[in-house]
Each structure stands twice: as C-alpha cells, then as structure tokens.
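Researcher: Re-running this chain for the archive, since the previous output was lost when a drive failed. Same request as before.
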Amino acid sequence: MEHGVEVGWDELVDVLRAEGVGDVPIGVWMTAEERSRVTGADASKDGVEESEGQPVSAVTRALRGLGDLNAWLAGGEVADVAALRTMVEGLAGLDAALSAARLRAMLAAREAGLPEADGAVSLQAWATSTMALSTATATREVRLAEGLADRPDVVDLLQSGSISHDHAAGIVAAAERQQADQEAATRARAAAEDEERERRRRADQLAQAEAESMAERTRLARETAERERKLAQERAERAAAEVAEKEAARRARQDALLQSATSGASPDQLKRKAAQLRTRDADALERAVAAQRSRRSVRTWTDRTTGQRVLRIDLVDDDYEMLTAGLQACSTMDPPGTPDAERRTPEQRRYDAFVDLIGAGLKAGELPTMRGVRPHVTVTVPVDTLTGDADYPGVGVFGVTLSPETVRRLACDARLTRAVLSPTGMPLDIGRATRVWTAAQHRAAELLFGGCAFPSADGQPCGRPMAWTDLHHVTWWRHGGRTDRANGVPLCRHHHTAVHHDGWRLSFDVATGTVTIKRGRGGTAISRTTVFPRDNPRSGPLIEGEDDPPAGHGDGRLAI
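Model: Regenerated structure tokens:
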C-alpha cells in the first residue's frame, strides 16, 4: 500500500488480508500517524507511542514479517531448500515464543480484570472469544498458564525456543498428576487418622464407664484431652512440613523433566519419562489401581448416525495386559500380496481378533450356564429365509435385526430348533435342537484342513485355527446342500462373511482336496485355489514311506 493513497475501510481491510496480516484490530496494524490521519485523533493524545519497545508496534512488525513469509511460501515452488529448512526450524522457535507470550498475556489479562470488564464469566470464556479458541483449547491454555505461574524459568525457556509448547504442557500435566497423587495420599492418611481417633474415643468411653469413682473418670478425661491436644499439634506440624516437602518434590520432578526437555527429548519421550518417575511412588500406583477399579466399566450404545452398536471398555491395567495378550494371540496379518480391496485396517484386524476371542470362549464350553443352557447366540428367523424362499430378517434375543444373508451364514454351523407359531405369534410346538454338523465331522475337517481353508492371495490358506472357524456348506443348505464331509469347508468369521456377503463363490473337490474361490468384479475375474492336505498349516507328521495321498483316501497323518 502506497503512502498518500486514500482508500476506504473495506478496501483497506482487503489490502491487509492480501498482505497476510488478516483480521487484526485497527490499533495493531496501523501506525500512530495513520490512526490520526484516518480517525482524526491526535496521535500525541492516543497514549500509544510508536517505538521499538511498545507491544503494539512489536505485534505489528511480527504480523508484517509473517505476511512476508506467507507470501514467499505461497509464491510457488521453493528453490532455496536450505532457506526453507532454516525457516521451518525458525518457525518452531517462533511458535514456542508465541505460546509463551499467549500464556503471559492470559495471566496479565486476569490481573488487569479484562475478563470482567468485557463481561466474560471466566478467563477461559474470555480467551475463547478474544483469541478465537475452542472451549477445550482455551481451558487447556488457561490451565497451562496457571500451572506455570510460579515457574517463570520454564516460560523463559519456552520463549527462547529451548522447549516447545508440548514440552511445557507435559511438565504441567506431570505436576498435576503428582499433586493429585499427593492429595490422594493426604486423604488416605486423614481417613486412617480419623479411624484411629474414633477407635481411641470408643476405648476412652469404655474406660470412663468402667471407672470406679468420679475422680477416676475425671483423671481419664483430663489425660484424654491432653493426649488429643498433643496429637493434634503433631498433625499440624506434620502437615506444615509436608506442604514444603510436597512442593519440593513437585519442583524436583519438574526440574528433572525440564532437564530432559532441554536435552533434546521429544514431548512423547517426556511423557514416558514422567510416567517412569511416577512409578517410583508405590503408594500412588496402588491408589491409581483402586481408582481404576472403581471406574472399570463396559458400556454399549447405538450410534445415532450409522445405527451400529458401539462398545466401550474402561480397563484396569492388568486386565488391559490380559486382553492385549488375547488379541495378539488371535490377530493375524493379511498375507503378502493381498489386494487393497481385501486388506483389513489395523482397527478391523483388532475387531476380528476380539470377536474370535469371544467366540473361542463361548465354544470352550467352560462359561456358566443360564437356565441350564450354555451361552450362545440365538436368532429367530422364518424357515423360508433359511430355505431361500424368502428374505425375511432374523431377530436376536437382544433386539438386533440381522439381514437374511447374515442369518444364513450363522446357520451354516449352528443348532436349529423348530418352533411352530400361531398366526398371532403364540408358540404351539417347540421341537428338539439339532446340530447341523456333528463333532465327528468337525474333527474330520480339522484333520484335513487344519483351519480356515479360504485361499489367500499368496496361494496359501488363511489358516486361522479351527476353534475360530465355522463349517460352511459349499452347496448352501437352502439350495439342497447336504451336511456331510464332501460339502463342508471351515472358514473363519472374516472369510465366512466374505463368502456370504462379498460375492465370493467357493467350491470344493473332495476327490483332490481342492478348494477354489472365484469372484468377478469391475470386469476383473479372480480365481484362487488351495489343495488339502498338502496346504494344511497344521499338518501332522507323515508316516514313514507314505507320500501325500489324495484327500478322502487317508492322508498318512497320525490322529491322536
């Protein structure tokens, strides 16, 4: 913008935005001379002198410098890589210095009474509106500012760029946790002292009741009062000493973390360092465990947007270790070469492992029974859905509506109970439960396949253990498929779902032991095969002198 050119307010704001200054109050981006020319006010009466030491002038220069920097970065391809590297490193220091200035500004605003003057109910609310921060961010920044109010040395290091904003936040968070630990210890000790005081009171009452004379009761009361006076004095002296001791401990931990931060530790490393320092307090760890146990919970709800069921578990540390061990045991990676369309995300792999873990527990048969029946999944569905004559959904006992294809997948390896209902839904006859696949058939499938037989992209079967699989009807039951060895292939939950829902067609040649899957999608045909028992991932030892015989003719393995 050239000097001496008259512009309107809107045009002036557009010019400043183009220069990278943005929507900054007029008192910041205008010099005293410009303010007096535009507003007609006398610069000498403004009370703000343009000098190097004035904060308004400093902010103006910083904004103009950032405007130049943004213009350089937005100008296209950066040719000077060295300058870019130096600039990025400098921005880290600039961000830290800006964080220090913001924290100090918040405390200064509180001391000056700006929140009350602007009608804000709190410093957080004032920061939210004045600094254009979210409520959560404003709350974190105010907590950080207050947490560093007595540590100007930390703010100085932040200003100089020796530590970052996240370093400072980690130091304050560690101090808050340490203070919470100390307060919990104080409460626990106070509760123990109250319990001991109550025990003494009852003992004193009993002693006075058993005293033989009034003089004896008077003496006991005097001794009790003197004892309690001395104990109260000792508690007061101990509490005063503990205040200084706790403050020294907090400062020592902050200094240790500060030393790590200035020595080059990242914010994440600083967080781990704080956790390590906390583990030295055994009492604090025991209190943390007690607090975790009081908060342990399992909650379920339905997502209002997707309709999916959501499960949240708040775990105690040792239960987390146990669950993680189980998930790792059940988790499997997708084979190399798996197409992107079939590759699972880490979250999906953990989900599959979690469901397999629950399924293994149900199949183990060691869970308590309910009304004489082992825990199981129960779905009510019209028989026409199973036969394929209709596509009515199924309904679970907990109110979940299941798609017809999901019901058919579940029915592949399940007990079926016939129930005859009246037109009004009244049960008229309940038949006996029948298992679609027998235990002997499961054992035969385990010997032949060893696990999930779905051919993967690398030419090998999925191989998840039999305990995690269901026997799938190759020719579907609703299409007249028989429940016999020649029509049963074990599939894990993930691949069983893929066959029923994702368009895969599976076939099994019992004579050669060949399992084939095919799918055509987007003009591309996919076909994969595996051969059993050759590809059995858990094949037993071959009997000496035997070659691999064809499936169905004895596979030369020892079944124990």
